[in-house]
Structures are given as C-alpha cells and as structure tokens.
Amino acid sequence: MTRSIIELMPTAEDDRVARHAAAAIALAVAEAAIPLPLPGVKPGFANIITLTVLARWGWREAAWVSLLRVFAASLLLGQFLAPGFFLSFAGALASLLALAGAMRLPKKWFGPVSYSIFAAFAHIGAQLVLVRLWLVPHDGAFYLAPLFGAAAVLFGLVNGLAAAALLRDLPSREPSCP
Amino acid sequence: MPDSISVRTWYELLRPGDWVVALAGLAACVVAGFWLWRGSAPDGVIVRTSGKVFAETDLSRPHRIEVPGPLGLTVIEIEPGRARVASDHGPRQYCVRQGWLTRTGAVAICAPNEVSLMLTGRGVNYDSLNY
C-alpha cells in the first residue's frame, strides 16, 4: 500500500474567506444570546460581514462567507438540520440572489444600505414562503409579515450603515467599493 | 482614521437611492399591514336557530333581533361594525359574556337555546369553530 500525501495549499482567497467567515460566525453566535420579542425577527449582524466582503471582494466570496456562516453557526448553536437551519439557509440563498441583482444598480445612487435592505427583504420573504409551504401550511403564516417587513427595513438599515462605515474606514481594494 | 460617530456621519453614509429603498420598504409594510389586518372588518351578521338561518343582515345600522328558541327569546344587538348577544336564557351565559364580536368569522353560540351569531365579511381570515 502506497501512501499518498495530499497537500492543500490555501490561497490568499481561502484565507480571506476563512477570516471573514470566522468574524461572521462570531457575530451570529453573539447575536443568538440577545433575547428577541418575536420568533423570526433577529438583527442579522453577520450580514455586515457579507456586505463588506461583497463590496471589497465580490459576490463569490460573499456567498462563501454567508453560507459557511449559516452552516457553522447552526452547528455551534445546535440548530443544524433543525427547522431554524433550513430557514436560515433559504434566507441566505435568497439574500445572495438579491445581492447579485442589487450589484447591478448604479453605484452612485445605491450603496450598502440599499443592498442590505434588499437582502433583508429577500431573507424574510424566502423564510415566509418556506414556513408557508412546510411548517404552517395555511395563510396564517403571513399574518405577521408586515412586522417582519418593518424589522427588515430597520435591521437592513442598521447593518447597511455599519457596512458602509466599515467600507469607508477600510483601505480600498479591487473589486472597488460600490 | 475613523471619524467620530455622530448622526451627521451616519447620514453621510446614505446615498440618495438608499432613502428611496428604505421608504419604499416601509411603505410596503404599511400597505401589507392594511391589506392583511384591516381586510378582516366584518360587514354582515348571520343569526341561526336550530341550524337554520333565522336572520341575515348587515352591520351598518344599530338594531336588535329577537330570536325565539326552546328556552325563550335570545336578544341580539347590532351596532355598526359589531354585534353581541345582549341577553339569553341559557344557564351559563357564555354567549352573553363573550361581549361584542368585532372580527370577521367570530361566532357566539348560545347552545342551550340553539342560537348562534356569526360575523361575515370579505376574506374570512379565521374560522372560530375549527380554529
């Protein structure tokens, strides 16, 4: 039997993704300690990282960071493969699609705050659809949708502002800041 | 070198389109709120006795309906947008103590006297009996 040694050399991109994902996971875990008035409403501070990575390094890295965070944070919080995990996962996928669309908006007019609000709406939208199809199979699932929407605007704004402040203070990199 | 954090600093981080997006988001929530929560205002009432419809009227003007049953008269009081069982001869008075019904689909049942009261309207968003 011959032994083969596979050496994995992480690229600079791998390092960045790992560092950013670690920051996002830390935020997600810290946030889980905050008591929340309504199940399903949470600030999603980890998305500050996603938005920052999106602006500085592009969509592909942002997608890596976002999805790694969903998996790792759910493992750490004991939610992996529980309903909450699938809701997070669906929300993250929808947010990433929304961000891919938002990136095409003129950068002069729309900044991280717009991205963040679009992503927050996509997140809650996908979660409501999944809840309606799977967990609460009648239209009562949408009863609190306006409250979730208001939370999406509020936390989208807060996270977007935080990302915008970070981007202003970080040294500029290509792909350039939006 | 980070600036000091002030309201003005935050304000400068918003681009013109960001305002539009945030306001459009809020407007969407308000519209959705009206659509989901106000659409349930009742506009009519159905009174049944022994399973048969005894009276079916709208909730636009105040009036009273007296419904005969095995124990006597059950009095139903209607006001604009709401209705209640004002008096009943049932021993436990559940339907009277329910008070004013204000939502589409709400039901008060005076079982001993076999009288029921139900509010109707567009888009029944819950079903009291099967809830």
Short descriptors:
heterodimer, A: 178 residues, mainly alpha, Arp2/3 complex 21 kDa subunit ARPC3, globular, B: 131 residues, mini-chromosome maintenance (MCM) complex, domain 2, four-stranded antiparallel β-sheet, three-stranded antiparallel β-sheet
Task: Walk me through what this model shows.
The complex is a heterodimer of chains A (178) and B (131). Chain A has 178 residues and is mainly alpha-helical. Chain A has a single domain, classed as Arp2/3 complex 21 kDa subunit ARPC3, CATH 1.10.1760.20. Chain A contains 6 helices and no strands. In chain A, α3 packs antiparallel against α4. Chain A is globular. The mean pLDDT of chain A is 90. With 131 residues, chain B is α+β, with helices and mostly antiparallel strands. Chain B has 2 domains: 7-38; 44-120, mini-chromosome maintenance (MCM) complex, domain 2 (Sandwich), CATH 2.60.320.10. Chain B contains 3 helices and 7 strands. Chain B has a 4-stranded antiparallel β-sheet. In chain B, strands 3-4-5 form a 3-stranded antiparallel β-sheet. The longest helix of chain B is centred in the first third of the chain and has 23 residues, at 16-38. Chain B is rod-shaped and about 75 Å long. The A-B interface holds A 105-106, 108-114, 117-118, 121, 139-140, 142-143, 145-147, 149-150, 152-153, 156-157, 160-161, 164-165, 168-169 and B 1-2, 5, 9-10, 13-18, 21-22, 25-26, 28-30, 32-33, 36-37, 125-126.
Put the structure in a nutshell.
The complex is a heterodimer of chains A (178) and B (131). By secondary structure, chain A is mainly α.
Mean of residue pLDDT of chain A? 90
Total of domains of chain B = 2
Overall form of chain B: rod-shaped
Kindly report the average pLDDT value of chain B.
Answer: 84
Strand content of chain A: under 5%
Rg of chain A, alpha carbons:
17 Å
- Structural class based on helices, strands and sheet pairing of chain B: alpha+beta
Second-tier CATH architecture of chain A:
Orthogonal Bundle
Q: With helices defined by DSSP (H or I, 4 residues minimum), what is the helix count of chain A?
A: 6
Tally of contiguous helical segments of chain B: 3
Number of strands of chain A: 0
Question: What is the third-level CATH name, the topology of chain A?
Answer: Arp2/3 complex 21 kDa subunit ARPC3
Distance between the termini of chain B: 59 Å
Gyration radius of chain B, in Å: 24 Å
Give the ordered list of helices and strands of chain A: HHHHHH
Overall outline of chain A: globular
Backbone structural class of chain A = mainly alpha
